[in-house]
């Protein structure tokens, strides 16, 4: 699922470098633009031939309005509603029907959904106890990964994130790293300018 994104040189992009630097500086995450900032989400997008991959990482606060485990019925309903939205990526990312994209694979992970934090990053448990503790006990993230196969990828001229801002109004900005036919770009997208070009 993540092979394409991992193979692409996201590390060369400034936002990715800033993110990597922040990973080593979690004790001061409120003093600078940390990897986890309320109102700010991150999206990696890669279009390679007919394959479109999207990875959305967001503080849970942006999606449900809280970060603690859902215990009340009201909180559980908010989590269920957010998850239902995330399970409809063709709608959420407003992919044009002309592109003929179908979802091949999707994964949603979050402590809010009852998942163990970063279960796929075994090395983090041993090597970064302090980082792991800070990141997952004080904050909850939602990770969503999608892989699409698009029959007519040329019809994917833009990526429109307006529905994310509409459905999750606490999201103020999404830091996008996009790789497509025209190359790489790093863009901060807001509700007022929610579309970017492949």
Short description:
This protein has 198 residues and is α+β, with helices and mostly antiparallel strands.
What does the secondary structure layout of this molecule look like, with pairings?
Elements: H1 3-7, H2 14-23, E1 40-48, E2 51-59, H3 60-64, H4 73-86, H5 89-92, E3 101-109, H6 122-127, H7 129-138, E4 141-150, E5 158-160, H8 162-167, E6 173-180, E7 183-190, E8 195-197
Please describe what this structure looks like.
The protein is of the alpha+beta class. The chain has one domain. The protein has 8 helices and 8 strands; from the N terminus they run H-H-E-E-H-H-H-E-H-H-E-E-H-E-E-E. The strands form 2 sheets. A 6-stranded mixed β-sheet has the order 3-4-2-1-6-7. Strands 5-8 form a two-stranded antiparallel sheet. A hairpin with a 2-residue loop joins strand 1 and strand 2. The radius of gyration is 16 Å and the shape is globular. About 25% of the residues have low confidence. It holds the Pfam family ZrgA. Keywords: Signal. This is DUF2796 domain-containing protein. InterPro entries: ZrgA-like (IPR021253).
Give me some keywords for this one.
single chain; 198 residues; alpha+beta; six-stranded mixed sheet; two-stranded antiparallel sheet; 8 helices; 8 strands
Alpha carbon gyration radius? 16 Å
What average pLDDT do the residues reach? 80
In sequence order, what are the helices and strands, one letter per element?
HHEEHHHEHHEEHEEE
| Tally of alpha and pi helices | 8
Distance between the termini: 21 Å
Question: How many distinct folded domains?
Answer: 1
InterPro entries: ZrgA-like
Keywords: Signal
Organism: Pseudomonas vancouverensis
Protein name: DUF2796 domain-containing protein
